[in-house]
Amino acid sequence: xxxxxxxxxxxxxxxxxxxxxxxxxxxxxxxxxxxxxxxxxxxxxxxxxxxxxxxxxxxxxxxxxxxxxxxxxxxxxxxxxxxxxxxxxxxxxxxxxxxxxxxxxxxxxxxxxxxxxxxxxxxxxxxxxxxxxxxxxxxxxxxxxxxxxxxxxxxxxxxxxxxxxxxxxxxxxxxxxxxxxxxxxxxxxxxxxxxxxxxxxxxxxxxxxxxxxxxxxxxxxxxxxxxxxxxxxxxxxxxxxxxxxxxxxxxxxxxxxxxxxxxxxxxxxxxxxxxxxxxxxxxxxxxx
Length: 288
Fold this sequence. Notes:
Oligomer: single chain
Number of strands: 4
Structural class: alpha+beta
Helix content: 55-70%
Number of domains: 2
Strand order of the largest sheet: 2-3-1-4
Distance between the termini: 28 Å
């Protein structure tokens, strides 16, 4: 089973490498704007030096990968190295064989959309298999190992926007900056769509005087499990029970209807981004 998973992960790494190379070479390069992160630095240096960004990406990532070997898991470094080498070599070969580039004066935003989706998908794939696309991701992982409570996401965002800002001086127009920002937004949407492993659900917390009967209604009617938590009312000082349950988004109205049988109940709820584990999605599933 472990060998099969390794084969699947290697295949996905190849897929991510192809998406990366095609997205950067076919769409970003001819559209004259810089994506965020190390890709953006490599693209700008290619613009200034006429050196294929595949070589530049390798030159930047190899020292980072060597450093990562001592701080991050070996699996992470191995898959990130495979991705970095494959995607860089592909971009070098694409230039040598004069592979197709999407060149247009009227529909440059198609390049923004296509590259944002492809680069977002490739990043999500690498994250899901336990690797990364190199560059900023390696730096952030190393920092996270040393400073686990640091808000690394904000630092990455600042770094990416600095790179996008610098691109104005390389490409010489504000449109390239706007295209870069738009591409980063599309990139994040595409990446999150893959990383999100399950459909949305709702976490409901019910404060009630009748927790046992309310819990039975949830289990019997909504077919979901529930947890009862002890609590104390702040004003009355009386002991109260809070029921915590995770239900499907469409069942929220059913839960409110159930609450009418328990007039002394108070419900507050919030949408959760994902659910993993023993959760009942279908009628045939067993409530746990």
